[in-house]
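Quick note —
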Amino acid sequence: MTTYGKPILLTIALVVVSPATAAEFCVSTNATLQQALMMAGSNGEADTIQIEAGTYTGTSAVAFAYSTSQNSSLSVSGGWYSNPPDQLCVRQVSNPSATTLSGSDARQVLKLTGASGTSGVLSISNLTISNGFTAQQGAGLFIGGGAGFLGNIVVTRVIMERNTSTTFGGGMSLYTEGIANVRNNMFLLNRCSMANCAFSFTANATDTANTRIFIGSNTVVGNACTSGASCTNGGGRFGGSARALFYNNVFAANVASDISLVDGGGGIDLYYNNYVTLSGSAPSQLVGNIAYANPGFVDLLNDDLRPTLDSPLRNAGTEDFVLSTLDLAGEARINEGRVDIGAYENIDRIFANDFDLQE
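Predicted structure written out below.
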């Protein structure tokens, strides 16, 4: 193991898993997180960055940024704990709230980009991204690249809350010409001044016969225009020529429309979602969708967005598509024989806890 800085303080640790093929970082400070992202962008390896539990902020226009012109992959995850001095990031708690990346209401939070022609996988999981503020798209998270980025994207079990863009995509913005999976995330109380306050996704492909964009089991609630603005879509948007699939998502209490579709030729399918308002292109397939303005959350005012026992979301989803093993709270994804709609499964509240650990 090669360590950088003082390992007893956990400033940064780098473990080379296999020479010239993979590198693993364990980070615990603002500076070492950004250092790891910079190193990962140019070391020519498949990189894994494990972030210890805590809150992280930055001082630049983008709090934390990664950019690469290589085909190497990057995986970023939170909720890690260490046993210093030599056991670094040895345990992970399945709770996205344990690790928060914040923009302090002054800057974009996290930007992960690959250059045109690159095809590395970008993956983030088990994090909270909050309080971003920018005039760019994706105040909370921008992931992918510009035209010509061919990489695959995975975003799973991430909370994107209270981020503000003065243009589009307050919570998250995504662009790829590869395959994208956005599953088991929460988009809560994000703001924008024009449109697509929760998220704005664009994906293009020459292959329009096969589904390449999978947006499943997300909870998208309370996303709206900034004060004085009049945005056309407070919820989420998908546009582009790639074929896309929305499944098991719950949209509620978003200003203007819940979902905006811009079909560039591939087709957009909606299976077993809850939404009230839909704008833009007509979906190619509509199967099993429901439309409840109040989908029955445990405590909406205090951000507990689990379905209640009598919620119409309960046991109303489909298992025909890929599901995560765990829901957003770290509980089993299927509780009563059939999946619930949204990022959370209904469970008996008496037995709920945040202490399940993954070794």
